[in-house]
Every structure is written in C-alpha cells, then in structure tokens.
Specification:
695 residues; Nucleotidyltransferase, domain 5; Rossmann fold; 5 domains; nine-stranded mixed β-sheet; 17 helices
C-alpha cells in the first residue's frame, strides 16, 4: 500500500505524519532541533516508520514544510551576498521604506532597522535601461570584468542582480550572469528578471536579495535531508510546501527559497480546506495554534485568499503586517495574520504591572517550565496544565512527562504572587489573555477585510488550537467549531493534500484596446515557459492545468486586482473589463467607472496529486455512552465557582455519533480538545469533533 510522508518543522515541535491510501494515519510529534533542523525530521521519520510498521520502500511521496527560509531572513543569518544594481542606485536598500506602527509612533528615540546589506557588499553597474526597455547606457563587457573582480574579492556565497527596469529588458542582467558565472562558477547567481520581472524597484530588489541570501542555505539543507531520508531507505521524490498553498520539487525550492517563507502557515490553511470538504461550510476560518505562534486565514468555497506580497519582519495592529514595516518579498502567499502567541509563549508583567503573554517564546529549548528541561518562566502550556486541561502523563504523543509542580511554581513566582492572586486565577488570566491576542489575528482576516466572522465555521488545529478554540470563537459569536482528527499535526496532513504548483508574472502596460489574442498569446506563452521552468517541467512532461490572470486597475491607480481569464479567445477577452468592475465592487464596495489598464500578466500551473482518503470510525451502538477515562478538576473561569469536576475522554475511544456534553476534555495523541460548560461536542464519521452551544 502506497504511503505519503508529511513533515512540518515548527518553532517548538516537528510533526511527521504517514498517510496510507486507505486514509489511516500515524503521527509523531518531537521537539525541534533549531541548530540542525533536519535532525528532528529524520529522528521523527525513523520513529514513525518503526512505530507504524511501514517499510521505507512504501513511501511514494515526501512533502516537507520548513521555517528555514523565514528564520534566515528574520535573523539575518543567510548566505553572504553581493548585490549589483544600476549606477546611482547603490543606496536603494539603505533608503528603503519606513512606516511606524503601534508604540513606535510616539517613540522619540526610534531607530529605523539596519539596512538588509552593508554598503560594502553593494556594487553599482555602469548601465541604464528605460522603463520601455530601451538601452540608454550600454553595458560594456570590458568595464564589467573589473567589477566582477571586485565582487569576487569579497568572497560571496551568492550574487543578487537587480538592474533598473530589467523587467522591461533583461539583456544587461543576462550579460552580467554570463560574465559572473565565468569569473565565479561556484557562486549562486540570482537575477531579478528571472525571479520577479515586475515593476516596483525596491520590492524587486529585496525579493532578489533574499532569494540569493537563502538559496545556498536551502540547497545545503535539502541535500542533507534527502541524504538522511535515503539512508532510512526512502527514495521517494521530495517536495517542499510553498507559501501559496502548493508544493514544488526540492530542486525548485532550493532556487526559490523565498517562496517557502510561509510554508507552515500555508499548510495549515490547506489542512483546514481539506477537513472542511465533507461539510456544508462555504466560509471557514482556519485557526492554527502551535508552540510559538498562532495563525488565522480564511477559506471561501474551498479556496484561500492569495496575496502577492509578504512583509518579512513586518509589524502592524492585530497581527497584520503593514506595508513599510519589515521588508517586502514578492511571492504568492496565502493571506494570513500571525501573532506571537502559542503554547510556549511566556507570561510576564510589564513595568506597570500589567500581565502580558508573548511574543517571547520558550521554544523547544528550554521550553515551558513543565517540560522539565531547564525552563523557569511561566508559559501558556504551564497555565493549561494548572487549569487541568492537560494530562501530565499523556503529552505530545507520550514523548514528554509534564511536571505540574514546576508549572505551579513558575506561575506563582512570576505572575500570581506579584499580582496578589491565587495560582489558579493567574493561570486563567494567562489562558484568557492569549485567547484575546489570538482573536486579534482572526479580526485581521475577517473584520478588517469586511467579512463577518459569525458567518464562518472555525476549524481549530495545532497542538494547542482545540484547547483554546471555544475561548477564541466566543469573542466573535462564532457558533460552529471543528477540531479535525490528528489536529495537533494538521499542517503535516495538509501538505500531503496539496498540488504541485508554480506561478510566474511579468509587468506589462496594456490598455483595453490591446486585449487581443495576437498580443496576449505569445506573451502568455513566454510566461508559461518560465512557470514550467520554476516547476521543473519540460515541454515533454504531462500537461499541467493552466490558469491565466491579468492584473487590472483604473488608470492612475497603483494597485491592481488579478482577474482570471477563461481563455485567450476574443469573446472571453471582451468580458475582462466587466469582470474587473465586478471584482472591484466586491473588494471595495463601490461601482467603478473610467478607463481600465492592465499592469501584469500571470500564469499559474497546477499538477493535481492523488489525495489520501478519509478513514472512518465505527458507529456508536444503541444507547451506550462514550467510554470515560476518568474525571479531574478543571477551571473554566477566574472564580473558584468556575472549577468543575470534568469528564476525561480518550479520542481513540470515540465512535461516530458520540455526543459529549461539556465540561469535557478529550485527550488525543497529539492534541487536547476542551469543551467548556455550556458547550457540547459531537463526533462525526471521519473522527472530527464538532463543537457547538448546548441547546
């Protein structure tokens, strides 16, 4: 029986899932190893194979999501890069953009972040193109050879090339690639005209820079990972989750590492889409709470919203990211809001004595106090243990035994005693406070987008998500909640369900009169060829599904909406303007008039994969109640009267049709589901737990 392997690295845990064709799953959750990320993946894969009895040769496909690119960019630990730009533009990266948000607005001592690259690693090239692609100053090879020597002298691992208006004419970038490859054949070379041939100089520059900065690290990491999998006997194709909700071949990921910046978050949204399919949920909020962060996204009619810009290290209100903060990377990305709130988030008191939770995290080393690995500061996991939600003997697939006394002591010393409250009340305040923070991420992707969260179902996953789902949903009046099977490793499951995808775009300057088949056919053919190259497909491969889009806007506007093209036939092209006006009204709530122009052409390629089936549970029989594993005291509010003797269930004992009135705690192998008083849970045929208000 064929098996698909999914592996997701998080800030605290690494999750590995083996999925058989019949839908049966085997999951392993293991502490991550940040200093050598592949080690935790390989150790978890070896455990999964041994525990499940699956032979390595049965694994037909391996899909991986990693935070390597994100960490390298945010922590500025990428490869040593030389940056080449047009003469006169050497200070482009230093000038950048700046927008102050939140407390920065009133900070008289505010200091802008350091530029992404020291000036000594930036080189100016004597050349110039016009915005129409006309050569204004020719690039002379003899003069450039001396520049190549200067670049080689700083011994870069990679070179990023971003010349002015190279999207309109890449000839000078192509020549630089040729000359630099002759001078430094072992160095990674990245040109903006190959990575992101679109207007907006700063955005194109940072995207090219980060691609070059991360590519050598990603290539080495994937080489080590593939070698380790081969040593375990797994020779299946290795695919990497990208930020847009698809996967790509490992070789393509090494070259386009910035496309993986939100791979973990994207996998979670795709998992929510997968588990929403059996239900009549047209609108879904995905809520992913792990050990370090919580992420929220929205899915309508089975598809997430795609953005085409990511602000790495950006800041904003309610978990959003504002343009001008962080550094822009132009890559297709599922629209997510993220907050530094997870199981490992540290609770602390600010100088005014106000309780805060996160964004600092205890991570996997030393981890929360209850892990017994040297952590001394109280975290959300410590609070949940004190509140009675977690079983200290059954945590993370029985790989960790939690120390309840250490959790109690940490909360007492750092929160309860300074605030003058008992430990239980302090623990509830930590739990409730992190719920409020995570709700802000849902606010970004719903209310701030003009969406009513009450019209959505909430699908909660991640190791801590189902524990906090009701507390978060209550803030919005969301009535339908779902905790999918194996919710603690849902991201690893979601990436197994994603298609092979690639997207490529190019800036154009077209009017309504230019929309004809003769103009667009050769243009889209070139863009499709570039997308095929990104995906690793040649013209002889099986044909992928092709989606074409035009970025449309009103004349004089700077931002555009992507409008799908049914075909390039004249009749379909005639409908593009009307489709744009309808999309404009849906996005902004006004009827648009005036001339329309088109700023970019895009091609999205998709090769569908075979999706694993859902396993089903045995149905409940007669009036037999669900088997309880016991009872324990749990707290569901700030007052002593909010403590209840709570039924404890094992998720593995549940059957289709079981109904569990709250208060109840359902222990799974990789997650815990909490059903507070006034709520009830129902188990469906695939093992999902649907939570709703008690009637």
């Amino acid at each position: 029986m064929s098996v698909v392997l999914g592996a997701d690295i998080g800030g605290t845990f690494t999750d590995v899932v083996l999925s058989r064709a019949d839908g049966s799953l085997h999951a392993v959750k293991q502490l991550s190893s940040p200093e050598a990320p592949e080690r935790s993946v390989l150790d978890a894969v070896a455990r999964a194979l041994a525990e499940s009895g699956v032979a390595a040769s049965e694994v037909q496909r391996a899909v991986h999501g990693t935070t390597l690119a994100t960490n390298a960019v945010i922590e500025r630990k990428g490869a040593r890069v030389a940056f080449l730009t047009t003469a006169g533009f050497g200070d482009l990266l230093r000038i950048g953009r700046e927008a102050r948000v939140e407390d920065e607005r009133y900070d008289l001592h505010f200091r802008a972040p350091l530029p992404p690259l020291p000036r000594r690693q930036i080189f100016e090239v004597p050349e110039r193109m016009s915005a129409r692609g006309e050569v204004l100053r020719a690039l002379e090879p003899d003069r450039v050879r001396g520049l190549c020597d200067a670049v080689a002298a700083i011994e870069p691992e990679a070179v990023a090339i971003c010349l002015l208006h190279a999207y309109a004419n890449p000839a000078h970038e192509d020549l630089l690639l040729e000359l630099l490859s002759q001078r430094m054949p072992e160095v990674t070379l990245v040109a903006s005209s190959r990575v992101h041939p679109e207007i907006r100089e700063f955005d194109r520059a940072t995207t090219t820079l980060f691609t070059a900065e991360v590519a050598p690290l990603m290539s080495r990491y994937l080489t080590r990972l593939a070698r380790g999998l081969a040593e375990l006997g797994i020779h299946a194709p290795l695919q990497i989750m990208d930020s847009s909700g698809g996967v790509m071949a490992a070789a393509a990921a090494a070259a386009r590492a910035v496309a993986t910046l939100e791979s973990g978050g994207a996998a979670g949204v795709m998992a929510a889409a997968r588990f929403a399919r059996p239900y009549d949920f047209r609108r879904v909020i995905s809520f992913d709470m792990g050990g370090t962060t919580a992420k929220a996204g929205v899915i309508h009619d089975g598809s997430p919203r795609i953005a085409r810009e990511l602000h790495v290290g950006g800041r904003g209100s309610f978990g959003g990211r504002r343009a001008g903060t962080g550094l822009p990377v132009k890559t297709a990305t599922i629209d997510l809001a993220e907050v530094g709130a997870g199981g490992g988030s540290i609770a602390w008191l600010d100088p005014e004595g106000i309780l805060r939770v996160g964004p600092q995290s205890a991570g996997s080393d030393p981890g929360p106090a209850c892990y017994g690995l040297g952590g001394e500061l109280p975290t959300v996991t410590d609070a949940n243990l004190v509140l009675g939600y977690l079983d200290p003997l059954r945590f993370a697939g029985d790989t960790l035994k939690l120390d309840a006394a250490a959790a109690h002591a940490a909360i007492e010393e750092h929160v309860a005693r300074p605030l003058g409250v008992d430990v239980q009340r302090a623990a509830w305040s930590i739990h409730d406070g992190v719920n409020a923070q995570m709700a802000s991420a849902i606010h970004v992707v719903t209310v701030q987008r003009g969406l009513d969260p009450r019209e959505h179902a909430l699908i909660a996953f991640g190791g801590a998500g189902p524990m906090h789902a009701v507390g978060v949903a209550t803030r919005f009046g969301i009535a339908s909640l779902l905790a999918p099977p194996m919710a603690g490793v849902a991201s690893a499951i979601g990436m197994q369900d994603t298609d092979l995808r690639a997207e490529h775009g190019r800036s154009v300057n077209l009017t309504e009169a230019d929309l004809d088949t003769a103009t667009l056919q050769p243009l889209f053919a070139e863009i499709e060829a570039a997308a095929r190259e990104k995906m690793g497909l040649d013209s002889k491969g099986s044909p992928p599904k092709v989606e074409r889009l035009l970025d449309a806007r009103h004349e004089g506007q700077s931002h555009a909406l992507s409008i799908p093209l049914t075909s390039l036939a004249a009749a379909d092209l005639e409908r593009v303007v009307a489709d744009f006006r309808a999309a404009y009204r849906a996005a902004y709530g006004v009827i648009s008039e005036g001339a329309v122009e088109f700023s970019a052409c895009r091609v999205l390629l998709r090769v569908p994969v075979e999706r694993p089936a859902f396993a089903t549970l045995a149905p409940a029989t007669g009036d037999v109640e669900p088997a309880r594993r016991g009872k324990r005291q749990a707290r569901f509010g700030p007052e002593p009267a909010d403590a209840f003797e709570t039924d404890i269930f094992s998720r593995g004992d549940l059957r289709e049709g079981d109904r569990l009135p709250g208060p109840a705690v359902i222990d799974g192998t990789v997650e815990t589901v909490v059903v507070p008083p006034g709520w009830q849970a129902r188990v469906d045929e695939i093992g999902s737990i649907l939570i709703s208000r008690s009637t």
